[in-house]
Amino acid sequence: MSTRLDHRNPLVFDTHELGRRPGALQRITREVAAAADLGIDGVIGVPEGSPVELDLRLESVMEGVLVTGTARATAEGECVRCLVPLRREVAADYQEMFSYPNPDSDDARGHRKAAADDAAEEDEDVTPLEDGMFDLEPLLRDAVVLALPMQPVCREDCAGLCAECGADLNENPDHHHDAVDIRWAALQGLAGSLGTDEKDDMSGAEAGVDEKQEK
Ligand SMILES: [Zn+2]
Ligand SMILES: [Zn+2]
């Protein structure tokens, strides 16, 4: 909580210019370089350093500043079915209420109750402004993850890869393995294992035969 925000950080925004008069509006557009791990780890994400276009609308309200906006970027990943590389244009919407940290200084109207709930609220969906500034980073990160597909596919009807040999079924729509082939392979496997068993039995063959005759 006590960490000071650095105004030089491109994801830190200053609300001083907006002022505190409810209804005041400010639009900000800014291009930033994507931070590391912006996306869904190992699935799809915005490559580190690539441009992220930020469009923010700051609105002064009684309790603080309501921030609404959209981030646009290009994410890269691969199709979960056929593993070809793919790109997705992402438009991630976000909204957050950043409150003035000291409710005592606000208008008295309706704030007695708010003050009582303050501790709980601050931990939930209301983030306090720090020196009139806020950090968009956590908001941006959550919004981008939500906007990305959990299971990206190169196209909706991607046929994926053959589960047995890995052939691309998009390029070979008629590709299949006959059931006979599978059974044959199973028999071959069985024959192979019998072969080794036989070898093992050979050494103790006589003992085995004797046992059978006794019964
Ligand atoms: Zn695919
Ligand atoms: Zn196959």
From TrEMBL:
<feature type="region of interest" description="Disordered">
    <location>
        <begin position="193"/>
        <end position="215"/>
    </location>
</feature>
<feature type="region of interest" description="Disordered">
    <location>
        <begin position="99"/>
        <end position="126"/>
    </location>
</feature>
<dbReference type="InterPro" id="IPR003772">
    <property type="entry name" value="YceD"/>
</dbReference>
<dbReference type="Pfam" id="PF02620">
    <property type="entry name" value="YceD"/>
</dbReference>
<protein>
    <recommendedName>
        <fullName>Metal-binding protein</fullName>
    </recommendedName>
</protein>
